[in-house]
Every structure is written in structure tokens, then in C-alpha cells.
Design brief:
By secondary structure, the chain is of the alpha+beta class. The chain has two domains: 124 residues, 2-Layer Sandwich (Chloramphenicol Acetyltransferase); 246 residues, 2-Layer Sandwich (Chloramphenicol Acetyltransferase), CATH 3.30.559.30. The protein is built from eleven helices and 14 strands. Strands 4-5-6-1-12-11 form a six-stranded mixed β-sheet. It has a six-stranded mixed β-sheet with strand order 7-14-13-10-8-9, with helices on both faces. It has a two-stranded antiparallel sheet with strand order 2-3. Strand 13 and strand 14 form a beta hairpin. The chain is globular and about 55 Å long. InterPro entries: O-acyltransferase_WSD1_N. One of its GO terms (biological process) is triglyceride biosynthetic process. One of its GO terms (molecular function) is diacylglycerol O-acyltransferase activity.
């Protein structure tokens, strides 16, 4: 993909927001160097050709080339926003595949640490482990993993994995019908917008409907997109989210490369169970989607993700990631990442229960999902402390992109109202 789109950015990452006085750049470099023995693959380099690369410890590794600093021009949110997006768009030094940026200068008692990595080297689950090693309390990941496989079930596992591979591959050929072009001319400059709700709210809504917090997130995303479409005037006849699914074994917390599988999930954006398009769009322009549409969207999302929550499919996805040959994997990823198949990247990740750096405490987080060329945006949901924090990463030219977090929060509120017991 990088060879086909050399001008695109293929990195992802996250931002940790901290309270307290910021460290100096030399102190942060010393701190990262102290933590790196827990993450030995961070000090490796890639060798070999594009078809058969491998990783080897880098004898010339220098932490100074990976840890940087961006100082805001002065106090105020405008200067802070400029500093943040400077770090978000800074290129990696030649030969490096990850970087840490210290952001400060806008306030004496607040700063942030931005971590970015090339997505071919690491995925979200490994990046979450990096967060826990650098800033977290060391608690294990809350990600679901399949149970230990048994040889007696091997034929069934092979059959399931092959069937899933055929199903997912055939889905990339389904005609999507007319799709409008991306409604802006990309500038190549990314922007980040954030929102948050209590994590308990998402879990309570999901539990009331027999689903998960991630199902609630996707249903709220569908509602937010419907409202955004009405406000911005950008037609969305059909929206498909590309959802990464972690396929690691229980002993694979951190690895280079991707141990995930990307699945397209159609989002119920347009259809309203009881109402015309005109009435729905009128509600969307006011920021709401209507009480009946919200739970209906959640039911539709759950119907599409139900099998993913089961042990059989998770084991099959793990087998696919582990054993599928390189060329079919490359072919599938090219197909599924194409804007003819998917419109947004939508990921979620449990990070940690707490975090800090020295005396500073982490007060918030934001995932930086991959922004695929031709997609509207990438959206990430991070679970940290008691919060579920949504982040939208998009090109600066996306119309009304700054409204997406608020629309997502409103959609969650509508889902919460629908889950409340009648009085």
C-alpha cells in the first residue's frame, strides 16, 4: 500500500494528556531509554527486501532520534492546537519507525505526550502495551483472546478459517453502487478532534441490549454520520467501517507487524425504521436522530458483530492471521482498505486503569487511528480510567470535521435514553 500511495501517511498512535509540570526533553529521553528494556522490539530495525523483511536488534539505536519536543508559541488553546498538529504531522527521521513528541508551553501545569508508529511495524494492541509500559501501571490488557486451541478440533478450525477467508474476500467484490467522491481536496495535513463519555454508560447501554460497548460505539458513529451528512450536505448513500479485530494468542502481547484482521462492517446510517429520509435529515440537521432510530441502529450493528464476539470466529481469525500466506494477505488488505469497500477506519482499544509520568498523572487519552487514502476519517475509541474517549482523525479539509465528537456524544445520549427503563 505504501508503494501505491507514497505520499500518504501510514502511521497511527495515540496522545496521553497529563497534569503537572512537563519534564525537560533530556529527562524524557532518559525516561524512555529507561523503559525500553521492557520493549526490546522498539530498538530493532528492518532488514531484507520488501518481500521477505525481518527484524534485527539495531546496534546503532539512538533514543535522541525517536524522542522530540514541540513547544507551543504561547498560552491559549490556539497555540496548543498548533503544537499538537505539528506533532501529529511531523515526519519520522530517516530509518526510524516510531517517535515520541513532548508537547508543552501552553500552560504551566498541563502537557501531552504523542506516540506515533508506522502501522506496518505495530498495531493497536501492541501500541496499547507500549502505553502501559511507558505510562501505565503495568496492568494486563483487557482485550478478549481466544482460549487455547486443541489439536482434536484442528479440522473444524481449518474449515472455519477457510470459510471465513472466502466469505471476507468475496465481500470485497460486492458492488456498492454509486458512491460520491471524497467531498474535499486532501491537503495532506491531519487534524484531531476529541470527545468523551463515561465508559460505564457505554457498557450499560450495550448490556441492556445484549451487546458490547464497542457495538454502542459503532451505533453512535452511525448516528453521528447521519447528522454530519445532513449538516454538511455530503451525501452518504452507504457507509462501511473497517474494524480491526485483535487476533493475538494470549502470549503475544507485543510483536512487530500486525496481529489483527480487518473486517468491513456496514453502518446503518441512512435507513430509519419509521420515518422518511426527509424527516430523518431534518432531525439530523438539528443534531438528533430520533428516539426510534437510535436503538434500531444498535440492533443492526449487533446483528453484524454478534459472531465476532464468539469463540469460534475469534479462533478462526487468529488462525487466518497466523497461517495465511503473505501474497493472499497482501491482496486482501489492498482490497479491503480500498475506498470502494470501506469509508472509515473504526478501532477501539482498552488502554489502562491509570497512568502517569513521574509526579504527573494521565488525565485523558486519544487514539490516532490510521487515516487511509480515500477514507473520510479514522475514528478511535480508547478506554482509560473511567472514560471512553472518542477521537476523530481526518484531513484538515474535511467539512465540519470538528463537529463529529459532539455528534457522537449526542448519539450516545440518545442510545442511553432508549436503554432507560420506562417510568
Amino acid at each position: 500500500m505504501e508503494r501505491r500511495h507514497p505520499d500518504a501517511r501510514w502511521d497511527a498512535g495515540g496522545v496521553a494528556y497529563l497534569s503537572g509540570p512537563p519534564p525537560s526533553l533530556p529527562d524524557l529521553r532518559a525516561y524512555v531509554a529507561f523503559r525500553l528494556p521492557q520493549l526490546p522490539l522498539q530498538t530493532s530495525r528492518i532488514e531484507g527486501g520488501p518481500r521477505r523483511p525481518w527484524w534485527r536488534p539495531d546496534a546503532d539505536f539512538a533514543v535522541d532520534r525517536h524522542v522530540h519536543e514541540v513547544v507551543a508559541a504561547g498560552p491559549g488553546e490556539g497555540e496548543w492546537d498548533t503544537a499538537l498538529h505539528t506533532a501529529l504531522n511531523a515526519p519520522f527521521p530517516s530509518g526510524t519507525y516510531w517517535g515520541v513528541w513532548l508537547l508543552h508551553g501552553h500552560a504551566p501545569d498541563r502537557y501531552a505526550v504523542c506516540y506515533r508508529f508506522h502501522h506496518a511495524c505495530q498495531d493497536g494492541a501492541a501500541a496499547a502495551m507500549t502505553f502501559r509500559a511507558m505510562l501505565g501501571g503495568g496492568e494486563p490488557s483487557a482485550r478478549p483472546v481466544p482460549g487455547k486451541g486443541r489439536l482434536t478440533g484442528l479440522p473444524r478450525r481449518v474449515g472455519t478459517a477457510v470459510g471465513l477467508a472466502a466469505r471476507f474476500a468475496s465481500g470485497t467484490f460486492v458492488a456498492r453502487g454509486a458512491r460520491p467522491a471524497v467531498p474535499f481536496v486532501p491537503t495532506g495535513e491531519r487534524r484531531l478532534w476529541r470527545g468523551r463519555v463515561p465508559a460505564a454508560d457505554l457498557r450499560r447501554i450495550g448490556s441492556a441490549h445484549g451487546g458490547s460497548a464497542h457495538d454502542v460505539h459503532l451505533a453512535a458513529l452511525a448516528g453521528a454520520l447521519a447528522a454530519w451528512s445532513a449538516r454538511s450536505g455530503v451525501p452518504l448513500p452507504r457507509v462501511t467501517a473497517l474494524v480491526p479485530v485483535d487476533a493475538r494468542r494470549s502470549d503475544e502481547d507485543q510483536t512487530w507487524g500486525n496481529r489483527c484482521f480487518a473486517l468491513p462492517v456496514e453502518l446503518p446510517v441512512r435507513t430509519d425504521p419509521k420515518g422518511t429520509d426527509a424527516s430523518r435529515n431534518a432531525r439530523g440537521a438539528r443534531g438528533g436522530q430520533g428516539g426510534e432510530a437510535a436503538p434500531w441502529r444498535l440492533d443492526r450493528v449487533m446483528a453484524r458483530t454478534r459472531k465476532l464476539r464468539g469463540e469460534t470466529w475469534r479462533q478462526a481469525l487468529q488462525d487466518l492471521v497466523r497461517f495465511m500466506p503473505g501474497r493472499p494477505t497482501e491482496w486482501y488488505l489492498r482490497r479491503v482498505l480500498s475506498p470502494r469497500v470501506a469509508d472509515v477506519m473504526a478501532t477501539s482499544m482498552p488502554l489502562a486503569e491509570k497512568g502517569g509520568l513521574g509526579e504527573s498523572r494521565v488525565t485523558g487519552t486519544a487514539l490516532l487511528p490510521l487515516l487511509v487514502p480515500g477514507h473520510l476519517f479514522g475514528v478511535g475509541l480508547s478506554f482509560f480510567d473511567t472514560w471512553a474517549e472518542v477521537s476523530f482523525v481526518a484531513d484538515r479539509a474535511l467539512p465540519l470535521g470538528e463537529s463529529l465528537p459532539e455528534l457522537w456524544e449526542r448519539a450516545v445520549a440518545e442510545l442511553e435514553e432508549s436503554a432507560a427503563p420506562p417510568e
